[in-house]
Specification:
The complex is a heterodimer. By secondary structure, chain A is of the alpha/beta class. Chain A has two domains: 243 residues, Rossmann fold, CATH 3.40.50; 74 residues. In chain A, 37% of the residues lie in helices and 27% in strands. Chain A has twelve helices and 14 strands. In chain A, the strands form three sheets. A six-stranded mixed β-sheet of chain A has the order 6-7-8-3-9-10, sandwiched between helices. A four-stranded antiparallel β-sheet of chain A has the order 2-1-4-5, with helices on one face. Chain A is elongated, with a radius of gyration of 25 Å. Chain B has one domain. Classes of the chains: A alpha/beta, B mainly alpha. Chains A and B meet through helix 3 and helix 4 of A and helix 1, helix 3 and helix 4 of B. The complex binds adenosine-5'-diphosphate and magnesium ion.
């Protein structure tokens, strides 16, 4: 039997672990286990497993065709998993579709056009689908917050691309979901709007919403996500806290122009490629220039010029995919 | 530790999503009320003019009822069926095109709720156009025959209009989920629905057909819908009332089952 003092102990263990920056959660917002999604013979998602902790932004990162949208489609019941399990808040999607759907907000990748209705009407109907018939307060909050208030009586076809995207986000939030799924939320959005959407997503996270977003922009993942999983050809290649992943995977390029002869160049230690009398190094991003120079044993007077190029995330990404 | 939400949090999902979708359906055709309600009226008026008035004077029915009076209940039911079908199918087809129906799969609307919301949405439009058609028919009656057409049994009339409207909205839904393009959708209308309605006895009485065609017509469920309405208005019909009621109800059940299946297994993805 577990009595209350055991729970107290458990809590204190949890608290201590938290203090050590090790979070232990008993309920995951979203648990995907061994998910497989096939279209005919083609496998779009291949034994994917991830678990989202409450209140985090998790980024599913991958190039076009990686299987991001297919994964999201199984969470929102647009596609049935070929095998595996998807649980939201402990409810299996296939077993309790209504409950799961009522807890989810979903922003599709493609813009929806809604022929007949104005922005405000669309939000009212959408709110009604979630059982909330009188939801003016939340609807007006979202219209205001997303800058759609001046456009609330316009039909969707008269909105700009950015406004349409904001409408999709407002729709996904009318019922105050606990879990928000954003499929490429800033694809085709200009920089200013993108930044303000990022800001809003962070705000949502801070108010307790758990967020799964997909993106093929590394920059977006870096700016927003607490953790990322890298998806390629349906398989999860790597998963971890964003910062660590970036550190582990990015390189700096250091170019050292020397006045050394071919003979002397041969004596330089380390891994590099040669272009004339210029040495090209690739070093982990946390390694310092001093350490590199010390390692090579290059005499200072032999160095004519040094240029450093920070490795791009793009490159890191390609690294992982290349290795996969 | 987080708690799972308790199940009583979900009671608002019982009726509200259905009511919302139904209201959306009704709002949708009210927005374009001229096309959705007035246009079919023009059709009915033309039929009344051409068949009821100009050709009708040369048609003799054995029952002795003026052809115009015979035609009106048929046109009323045709208006109801056509519009119920149109409404459900064009709502889904345009929704598939815009990506709207994808929403229905993602929000907590169950397949039954979707089917019933579209059925009632279609029915209400069908009833509106049917009522207006009846009014226009009355004008023709007054002008041509000099008296209005009475309704023999209003409850029976409402019953058949409701069963027929619901059934045809469901057929519209099935067709729209099945169709993969706009062209396929209009082909279903032209090759299946219109012939079924026309051959269901809108314009003619079974007694005017040869025995062979009479037997063929008996397999057309529309015959029972239309004759049910004709009985309700005129008090006489080619088909026994009980048979009309039984066949209509059975077709409604069958169409509902098929519609439920279409929504449950149909594709909601965009075109
Ligand atoms: N309905 C479908 N039928 C067949 N293949 C599909 C379908 N949807 C997606 N795919 C394929 O599955 C793969 C993954 O697609 P998707 O999940 O959309 O990737 P992403 O969102 O990461 O770009 C792609 O190769 C795509 O062509
Ligand atoms: Mg995608």
């Amino acid at each position: 039997m577990i009595n209350s003092s055991h729970w107290v102990q458990l809590y204190s263990v949890q608290a201590r672990l938290k203090f050590l920056n090790l979070h232990v959660y008993t309920v995951f917002m979203l648990v995907i286990q061994d998910l497989v999604k096939k279209y005919g013979d083609f496998t779009a998602v291949d034994h994917l497993s991830i678990a989202l902790q409450p209140g985090e932004i998790f980024g599913l990162l991958g190039p076009n065709g990686a299987g991001k949208t297919s994964t999201i489609a199984t969470i929102v019941s647009l596609e049935e998993p070929t095998s595996g399990s998807v649980k939201v808040f402990g409810f299996e999607v296939a077993d309790s579709p209504k409950k799961v759907k009522s807890l989810l907000g979903y922003v599709p990748q493609e813009i929806v056009n809604h022929g007949y209705f104005s922005v405000e009407e669309i939000l009212k109907f959408h709110s009604g689908y979630f059982g909330r018939l009188n939801n003016k307060k939340q609807i007006h909050f979202l219209l205001e917050r997303l800058g759609l208030m001046p456009h609330k009586d316009k039909k969707v076809k008269h909105l700009s691309g950015g406004m349409k995207r904001r409408l999709l986000i407002a729709k996904a939030l009318v019922h105050k979901p606990k879990l928000l799924l954003l499929d490429e939320p800033t694809a085709g959005v200009d920089i200013e709007l993108r930044n303000s959407l990022w800001e809003f997503v962070r705000e949502l996270r801070d108010s307790g919403v758990t967020i799964l977003l997909t993106t093929h922009y590394l920059e977006e993942a870096e700016a927003l996500c607490d953790r990322v999983g890298i998806l390629h050809q349906g398989r999860l290649q790597k998963v971890g806290p964003t910062k660590e992943l970036i550190q582990d995977l990015t390189f700096r390029r250091v170019q050292i122009k020397t006045n050394l002869s071919a003979e002397d160049l041969k004596k330089v230690k380390g891994e590099y490629s040669l272009m004339g009398s210029t040495l090209n190094f690739k070093i982990p991003s946390e390694e310092s220039l001093g350490a590199l120079l010390a390692k090579t044993g290059l005499p200072l007077e032999a160095i004519l010029d040094i240029s450093i190029q920070e490795g791009s995330l793009e490159e890191a990404f390609l690294n992982i995919l290349g290795r996969a | 530790m987080k708690q799972k939400p308790s199940s009583d949090n979900f009671s608002h999902l019982r009726w509200n999503p259905f009511l919302s979708l139904l209201w959306r359906e009704i709002r949708r055709y009210l927005k374009v009320v001229f096309q959705t309600v007035m246009t079919p009226l023009v059709n009915s008026a033309l039929y009344l003019l051409i068949f009821g008035v100009s050709l009708g004077s040369s048609i003799q029915l054995q029952s002795g009822i003026p052809y115009l009076a015979f035609l009106i209940p048929g046109l009323v039911m045709m208006a109801c069926l056509n519009n119920a079908f149109q409404n459900a199918s064009s709502s889904i087809v345009s929704g598939k095109f815009s990506g709207d129906v994808e929403d229905w799969k993602v929000v907590p609307l169950s397949p039954s709720q979707i089917v019933w919301a579209l059925s009632f949405g279609g029915l209400i439009r069908g009833l509106m156009v049917a009522a207006l058609t009846f009014l226009v028919g009355q004008v023709f009656m007054k002008v041509e025959i000099g008296e209005y057409l009475g309704i023999h049994s209003p409850m029976t009339l409402l019953f058949f209009l409701m069963i027929g409207g619901l059934a045809f909205a469901k057929i519209g839904l099935i067709a729209a989920f099945y169709a993969k393009t706009f062209d396929q959708m209009s082909a279903i209308g032209a090759f299946v629905i219109t012939p079924l309605i026309f051959l269901g006895g809108v314009f003619f009485s079974l007694e005017n057909l040869s025995e062979f065609w009479q037997n063929v017509s008996l397999y057309n469920p529309m015959l029972y819908f239309i004759n049910g309405v004709r009985y309700a208005v005129l008090g006489q019909t080619d088909v026994p009332l009980v048979k009309s009621i039984v066949v209509s109800c059975l077709s409604l059940v069958a169409f509902h089952a098929a519609a439920y299946y279409s929504v449950k297994n149909g594709r909601f993805q965009r075109w």
